[in-house]
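This part of the workshop introduces the protein records we will be handling. Getting from the letters to the tokens is the skill we practise here. An example says more than a description, so a record of this kind follows:
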Amino acid sequence: MKKADVKVGAIVGGKSEEELKKPFLGKVEKIYENSALLAITSYDPVDETAISDLNNKIVVNFKNLKSARSLKNSKTAATNEVKIEKMKKVAKKDDDKKEK
């Protein structure tokens, strides 16, 4: 992939011979002269430990980037989203009311 084809915020496919065994998907966070910083968004489960060690980020040379394609059997990286659910109210026992 050429530098001109890489845009910040784009999802791209990548590979890294040194760090990861399988291809992955990542969101471009920063563009350098010959490479890009990616936030890893989807990866093969065999690379889970390595991805964790990298804090879900990796710098990849443009020659190792491709247009995004979904990966078979991939795992989505954790995000900072917080889900909020309502909790059920617990009824107090009659004994608690009598103590007052």
Summary: The chain has a mean pLDDT of 81.
